[in-house]
Design goal:
Distance between the termini: 24 Å
Helix content: over 70%
Strand content: under 5%
Largest sheet: none
Structural class: mainly alpha
Order of helices and strands: HHHHHHHH
Number of strands: 0
Low-confidence stretches: none
Shape: flat
Number of domains: 2
């Protein structure tokens, strides 16, 4: 089973690389409908399904859930990024065809993530005793899906700020920027992607508190850095929605809040490297 997993993993990596090249090609095309657009769509979904296959094999091998260590966590992170991006690309490609060009950023990120995952590959005997619970599966998968959603939302927030900055200078959009989604589309998808991430973030905290109560007899500890910073991450992402939807500061201000929130998300991810934490599994997840 491990050999099959390795073969499909490398197939996924090669497919992601090829798909990146297709997206790079269509990024420099003047048309929004070409054979490269169709090939990128086909290969993006084949890549996604191949990564799903790796996750499924890990799941079948353990018999409980697919999380056995850092390798499986990174693969699931790649899966979550593609799941969110392809969902938005499918939903908006007709009314906002330039959304497809964002694949030129997403798929190279997936390639990098898979390469990092491979450096941490090891044949695992199964799920460690500390993770032998379906609630832990919900907890970890919610964390990674939140990060996948936040990552896609941050990419679109960056695109918004680049576009807005160029228009503000009254020089018009640069040729490369004209390939990217409009301000309206970028802002809308940022909002929706971060909304999805926030939901998973709440599930992450609730399942973590429930598990902590069962395992350690307490629901919360201010001495556990991962818990504290995850709460701070939730509050900052919540402030994005307050800034945008309550105070009405859409566009540039809310996009900056999204970037600040992602910085906190990255720091939260890195806490096991800097602090003593019971959340040392996966060195991040």
């Amino acid at each position: 089973m491990e050999k099959v997993e390795v073969v499909i993993f490398w197939l996924s990596l090669v497919l992601a690389g090829i798909t990146s090249l297709f997206y790079l090609r269509i990024f420099f095309l003047k048309t929004t409908d070409s054979v490269y657009h169709r090939l990128s769509s086909i290969f993006s979904w084949i890549t996604f399904l191949s990564i799903v296959s790796v996750v499924a094999i890990q799941w079948i091998r353990t018999g409980l859930h697919p999380f056995t260590g850092p390798f499986s966590a990174r693969v699931f992170y790649a899966f979550s990024m593609l799941l969110i991006f392809l969902a938005f690309e499918t939903a908006y490609s007709r009314r906002a065809p330039r959304i497809k060009s964002v694949g030129v950023l997403v798929f190279p990120a997936v390639v990098l993530l898979l390469l990092i995952a491979w450096t941490q590959f090891e044949v695992s005997a199964g799920v460690s005793p500390a993770l032998r619970s379906f609630r832990v599966f919900i907890h970890i998968s919610s964390a990674i899906l939140a990060y996948g959603s936040y990552t896609i939302g941050t990419i679109f927030a960056l695109i918004y700020l680049v576009q807005e900055s160029q228009l503000k200078k009254k020089r018009g959009l640069q040729p490369t920027s004209q390939k990217l989604p409009s301000l309206e589309t970028s802002e809308l998808i940022t909002h929706r992607a971060l909304g999805i991430g926030l939901i998973f973030n709440v599930v992450l905290l609730l399942t973590g508190m429930f598990s902590a109560k069962l395992e350690w007899g307490r629901m919360w500890s201010w001495n556990e850095p991962r818990e504290v910073f995850t709460l701070m991450m939730l509050l900052i992402y919540g402030s994005y929605f307050i800034t945008r939807d309550v105070l009405g500061h859409r566009g540039r201000r809310s996009s900056y809040v999204a970037l600040i929130a992602f910085v906190m998300a990255v720091f939260t991810y890195m806490t096991p490297y800097f602090f003593n934490s019971v959340h040392s599994w996966g060195k991040g997840f």
